[in-house]
Structures are given as C-alpha cells and as structure tokens.
From TrEMBL, chain A:
InterPro entries: ExoRNase_PH_dom1, ExoRNase_PH_dom2_sf, PNPase/RNase_PH_dom_sf, Ribosomal_Su5_D2-typ_SF, RNase_PH
A GO biological-process term: rRNA processing
Biological source species: Kwoniella dejecticola CBS 10117
Gene Ontology molecular function, alphabetical: RNA binding
Alphabetically ordered keywords of this record: Cytoplasm, Exosome, Nucleus, RNA-binding, rRNA processing
Family: Belongs to the RNase PH family.
Compartmental location: Cytoplasm; Nucleus
Organism lineage: Eukaryota, Fungi, Dikarya, Basidiomycota, Agaricomycotina
Name of the protein in its database record: Exoribonuclease phosphorolytic domain-containing protein
Signal sequence annotation: none
rRNA processing keyword on record: yes
Domain Exoribonuclease phosphorolytic: 43-170
UniProt GO cellular component terms: cytoplasmic exosome (RNase complex); nuclear exosome (RNase complex); nucleolus
Transmembrane regions: none
From TrEMBL, chain B:
Any GO BP: U4 snRNA 3'-end processing
Residues in K Homology domain copies: 192-238
PANTHER family the UniProt entry points to: EXOSOME COMPLEX COMPONENT RRP4, PNAS-3 RELATED
Region of interest (Disordered), ranges: 238-261
One function term, GO molecular function aspect: RNA binding
Compartment(s) of residence: Cytoplasm; Nucleus, Nucleolus
Superkingdom of source: Eukaryota
Main location: cytoplasm
Keyword Cytoplasm: yes
Subunit description: Component of the RNA exosome core complex (Exo-9), composed of EXOSC1, EXOSC2, EXOSC3, EXOSC4, EXOSC5, EXOSC6, EXOSC7, EXOSC8 and EXOSC9; within the complex interacts with EXOSC4 and EXOSC7. The catalytically inactive RNA exosome core complex (Exo-9) associates with the catalytic subunit EXOSC10/RRP6. Exo-9 may associate with DIS3 to form the nucleolar exosome complex, or DIS3L to form the cytoplasmic exosome complex. Exo-9 is formed by a hexameric base ring consisting of the heterodimers EXOSC4-EXOSC9, EXOSC5-EXOSC8 and EXOSC6-EXOSC7, and a cap ring consisting of EXOSC1, EXOSC2 and EXOSC3.
UniProt-recorded name of the protein: Exosome complex component RRP4
GO cellular component entries: cytoplasmic exosome (RNase complex); nuclear exosome (RNase complex); nucleolus
Length: 283, 327
C-alpha cells in the first residue's frame, strides 16, 4: 500500500480534528465568499483586486472573486528563442494549487487546466497589442489558490491577467474583463452565479433530460463573456446549455453590463497601484 | 448561425452607445481640449493618469505618441500611466515597464551569450542588446583593427555573466539595441555590486558616473546610474584612474580580479546600496545629489552600520527628500 509514497510531500498527521468555532451572533455575517443575499440577480459580484504584489515579476495581480482566488504574474516582453516571429507570442499557463479544488487535487498533475488556458488565451489576445513586440514573448502564469466552478475561474482569470499585463506596462487595446451569466430553470437570469446556483442548474438539467425529450421547458444555460468594456468590444463568448435566441441576447447584454462594473474596479485598482508608486499626484 | 451573428452585432452596438462617461471620457480630455496657452507644458500637478482603453482626446487635433493608439477618431491610451503632452503630440508614460532605450543612453548590462563577433547583453530591455566586437576597445589602449585572433579570444575579454557599462549606439530593425564601449569610461565592471531599480526612476543626467568622496569609505564610492535601471555601486577610484589619466591600467581593463577592498570600503558600498534601495522603494527618482545627501544624513546622525531601522528610514526620507511615508 505504501509503495506510492511521495517523499517530496509533507505527510498529514494521522489524526486530525476540525477546528471548533464560536457560534455566530444574531445578524452577524459569516466570513467567506459573497452570497447572493448581498446583491441583486443582475449585479456583478464584488471583487478584490490588487496589482504589483509579486515583486520579481514584471507585472502581477491578485484577485479574490467569490470562491475564486488567483495570483497572476506576467514576465516580458522578453526575447524569444528563434525562429523569428513578426508578432509577439503569448504563453499562458494555468496551474491549480493542490489545495485549490475540493476534493483536493493530486499534486503535480495539471492536465485539467489546458482547456482553461486555451480559452483564456483566446479571450486575452485581442486585448494585447502583440504586433508591438516582434521576436518577443509574454509569459503569463496564473496560480489558482482557490476555485469553485471553471467558468468563475475563467472570468476572474481574465480580469486578473489584464490587470497584471497592464501592471507590466505592456501595450494593450483595452482592459479585458470576464463575466458569467446563467439562466436557471425558472428563466431567471443570474449574473456571476455562485457554485451552488450552478450545481442546482446542472442537476435540474440532468433530471429534465432523463424525464422529458429535448427542447422542452424554458431552457437553461450558462454564458461566459470576455469583453473590453472601454472599447465596447467582446473578445470571447462561451456558452453551454440550450436557450432561446432572445434569452441568449438578454444574457449577453446582462453579462456586458456586469463587465462594465468589473472594469471600473479594475481601472481603479490600476490607478491605486500607480499612486502607491508615487505617480499621479492629485489626479 | 446566421441569426446569432446579427444578434452579436446589435448587442455590441447598444453596448458602445451607453458606455458610462467614466470609461470613455477622462478629465484630461476636457483639460487638454480647453487648454490655455499658459497651461502649456503642464507641471506634475496637472498630470493625469489613464488606464488602457481610456480615450484621451480626439485624433483630429492631436497626434498619437508612445503608449497610445488611434481608435476611430480618438487617441486611446494603451498603457497605465501619466499623460505627457508636447505641443500636439500626446503620449502616455507607463508607470512601470521595461526599459525603452534611446541612442546615447548609458546602460549597464550583463553578458548572456558570446556569439560570432558579438556578445549578447541583458540590459533590461524587451530584447537582448548586442555588443559587437568591432565596437569595443581592446586591451592595449590604442585603436587597432580587430583580427581573427581577437574573435577567438572574445571570452577572455567578456565572458557570460560579466557586467559592463556601455552606451546605446544604434538600433536594429526589431528594436534591439546595439551597444558600444568605445570610451575609457565604459567597459567591464568590478570592485562593486549591482542593484536593479525601476528604469523610470533614473533620469537623463549630465553625467551618470558619480563619485561620493570620503568619509564614504577610505577612497569614496563610485555610483553608475544606468538608464536601464541597473545601478552599479563600487569602490571609489580617482577620476584619472577611471578615465585613462595617470595610473590608468590599460592592460587591466578586462581583468576578472577584484582589487583588495578594506572592510570600511565594503561597508560604505553596502550603505550606499541600502540607501538607493530605500529611495527606489518609495519611487523617488535617483540623482547624484540625492544619494550624496542621504549618505551625509546617515553620516551626521552617526547611525550604526547595516540597514536603516524603519523609524530612521522615515526620518531620512522626511528630512532629506521631504517625503512623508507614514501617511
């Protein structure tokens, strides 16, 4: 049994006891990711975003968005090995910390994030002026410290990587932001859904799929939009599920509206980052 | 498929129609448009700061400079930074970025590769810089032709990891810089330590070689402020020795051996290094007088050797630079 023992890991103690907390007082809010009770259905999730925390990187960002925490570092533009490329290349790597997912992921096994990094790269490329960086590469590393659903990770990942790229002083067309929109079984549109809301949708859809034929009911789906809110452009749309066209339009519009709010926060955190370096003055 | 396409278009349109003023317009735009001639060359307090994608002004009246691009009829910022304006030219200076070289800049670099007739040098730029064998002075002092045997001995002059101070001579087509060390002021560095600060903090000065005289160490301390953000702090020498006067060792230009530096000299080097680090940490632009003033402050207050205590740092910054970091 003990043959596959990884000596690089620190083994957990044999007995572990969960900590005991004092019960919450009446009306006291529980710590942790924001819950839907704090906001309306079409309101973007409040986020925490800070740039410049990783000192050795050329640019960095850290985001907390609901149940997602990501540290992102950007290196570059730096010289790239031959062959010659007239445009810069973007290398993006997404890694999950072993403790980032529930259940705990196996260490040193990161095949899962490949499609995440592909989707993220697609959403990011229109935001960066890669034609300004011939023969160079820009390397982005996202370390997921905590995650709930892949779509939330993607949307937060897009926001934080734009922040980090802007922090590195790399020329961009605009700041990319991500937002997720979900239509539940009652036709209700939820912006930036929580994990529980998404799970509810999935289980309902499964139940319905078994019970009835296809194309019944209101339709339910999930939509991820990558946008450049300052320019009014959409960089990526990723949709799962089955909804009417009108409903889909509505979802896209809600997602875009939410991405504008996120953009305000993103721009603000960049300005704060600049002020911290003593630049900007009273501006 | 077709219907989805039309949908996307209409939603994009409605999206850009009602973009809030905070995203599209900036105070700077209004300021820049209604600019009086008196406000020309706006000082630091007038400066405004923008984020990527923010519209700065109309491209009909202004030209786009670095850090901006033109989108439809607008000049739009492409980096986070401060708006700089020269006449009709609008540019945005990034808060933090890699070093953007200009011809004539003094830089400090590290050799990363020895290649055919050239060295590749890391100078904190987007691309590695190139130092051609034909643009260095070889031992012997006098100008002489480079022959094949010199090309074979390149690693004896400068090997991987060696540090050097050089000047930007020209650019290649891809923006990489070509360096030269054709002056006795330039060349291999030794007897000191390198530190790296954001390149934005180094201003173009009359001279980038500074000598802080004793009591800063027995022979003083030399500081070279490279415009690429690399700073070299070394044991002090006299100006003649540095620039080819009396006592200049023309054969020792490419020497790998450090001189004997007494403990007091080493102490002085690290004191200066610590001070530069502190100033850079607070985003204060570095000049020779500032470094010297802060050393004099440390000297007058007779502080113990080693890094400054946090409260001493506060006092030093307040008294020397006039910056209050407690707030």
């Amino acid at each position: 049994m003990a043959t596959a023992f990884d000596r690089r890991r620190i083994p957990a103690p044999e007995i572990s006891i969960p900590p005991i907390y004092e019960p919450l007082l009446d009306g006291e809010a529980e710590a942790g990711p924001s819950k839907r009770v704090d906001r309306a259905n079409d309101e973007a999730r409040p986020i925490f975003l800070k740039t410049g925390l990783i000192s050795q990187a050329n640019g960095s960002g850290y985001i907390e968005s609901g149940g997602v925490k990501i540290a992102c570092s950007v290196y570059g533009p730096r010289p790239k090995a031959p062959p010659y490329t007239p445009q810069g290349t973007l290398n993006l790597e997404v890694k999950f910390a072993p403790f980032a997912s529930d259940p705990r992921g196996a260490p040193l096994r990161d095949t899962e994030p490949i499609h995440l990094s592909q989707l993220l790269t697609q959403s990011l490329i229109p935001a960066i002026q890669l034609d300004q960086f011939p023969k160079s590469s820009i390397d982005i590393y996202l370390l997921i410290l905590e995650s709930d659903t892949p779509s939330n990770v993607l949307s937060a990942g897009l926001t934080v990587s734009s922040a980090a790229i802007a922090d590195a002083g790399i020329a961009m067309n605009g700041l990319g932001t991500g937002s997720v929109v979900l239509t539940d079984q009652n036709g209700e549109i939820l912006v930036d859904p929580e994990e529980s809301e998404e799970i509810a949708l999935q289980s309902q859809a499964q139940a319905q799929g078994q019970g009835q034929g296809q194309g019944q009911g209101n339709g339910a789906g999930k939509l991820l939009v990558g946008a450049l809110p300052a320019l009014g452009k959409v960089t990526n749309l990723y949709m799962e599920g089955e909804v009417e066209v009108d409903q889909a339009i509505q979802m896209i519009e809600k997602a875009i509206a939410a991405s504008r709010d996120t953009h305000t926060v993103l721009a603000q955190s960049l300005l704060e980052g600049a002020l911290e370096r003593g630049i900007g003055g009273e501006a | 498929m077709f219907s989805v396409k039309t949908v996307a278009l209409s939603s994009t349109q409605s999206f850009s129609d009602d973009i809030p003023a905070t995203h599209r317009k900036h105070q700077a735009e209004l300021d820049a448009m209604d600019l009086d001639e008196d406000e020309f060359g706006a000082g630091p307090s007038k400066r405004n700061i923008v984020t990527p994608g923010e519209v700065i002004t109309s491209s009909k009246e202004y030209m786009r400079g670095h850090g901006t691009y033109v989108e439809e009829v607008n000049v739009v910022s492409s980096v986070t930074g401060t708006i700089e304006r020269v006449n009709k030219l609008i540019s945005v200076k990034p808060v933090r970025s890699k070093y953007v070289p200009e011809v004539g800049d003094l830089v400090i670099g590290r050799i990363v590769e020895v290649g055919p007739q050239r060295w590749r040098v890391d100078a904190n730029g987007r691309q590695d810089a190139v130092l051609m064998l034909s643009s260095v002075n070889l031992p012997g002092g006098v100008q002489r032709r480079k022959i094949e045997s010199d090309a074979l001995k390149m690693r004896e002059f400068l090997a991987e990891g060696d540090l050097l101070v050089a000047e930007v001579q020209a650019f290649f087509g891809d923006g990489a810089m070509s360096l030269h060390t054709r002056s006795l002021k330039y060349g291999k560095l030794r007897n000191g330590q390198l530190l790296s600060v954001p390149p934005q903090l180094i201003r173009r000065l009359k001279s980038h070689f500074h000598h802080i005289p004793p009591p800063c160490g027995p022979t003083g301390v030399d500081v070279i402020l490279g415009l690429n953000g690399y700073v070299w702090v070394s044991n002090g020498t006299s100006q003649e020795k540095r620039e080819g006067g009396e006592g200049f060792d023309s054969e020792g230009v490419y020497s790998d051996k450090n001189d004997d530096i007494p403990p007091e000299g080493r102490q002085a080097i690290s004191t200066i290094t610590n001070l530069i680090k502190l100033l850079a940490q607070e985003g204060i632009p570095l000049t020779d007088t500032l470094i010297e003033d802060s050393f004099n402050w440390v000297n007058q207050n007779q502080l113990p050797p080693g890094p400054l205590a946090p409260n001493e740092t506060e006092r030093m910054l307040a008294e020397v630079v006039g910056v209050d970091i407690t707030a």
